[in-house]
Write a structure and sequence with these properties.
Blueprint: H1 7-15, H2 18-46, H3 50-79
Length: about 80
């Protein structure tokens, strides 16, 4: 499934610390949220229930917003 961290990625995160742990966490969360956006967009198009389509649209907006925040944080961390 798109956006799911592999066992190797999770192990790397588990053994990282400090700035490297921050960077890995943000990278993995961006990928995870991108996968969530993809899944929610599919639900917007194909779900049978209006409530599900509405929730999916809300998820797309929320996840995209969080992706922007995560990338901004990663950029700020790279500047320090």
């Amino acid at each position: 499934m798109p956006g799911m961290a592999t066992d190797d990625e999770l192990q790397e995160l588990a053994t990282a610390s400090g700035a490297r742990a921050d960077e890995l966490f943000v990278q993995l969360m961006v990928a995870h949220h991108e996968g969530g956006v993809h899944m929610a967009e599919q639900a917007v198009e194909d779900a049978g229930l209006a409530k599900v389509r509405s929730m999916a649209r809300s998820m797309v907006v929320g996840q995209r917003g969080e992706i922007v925040e995560l990338r901004q944080e990663l950029a700020r961390a790279g500047e320090s």
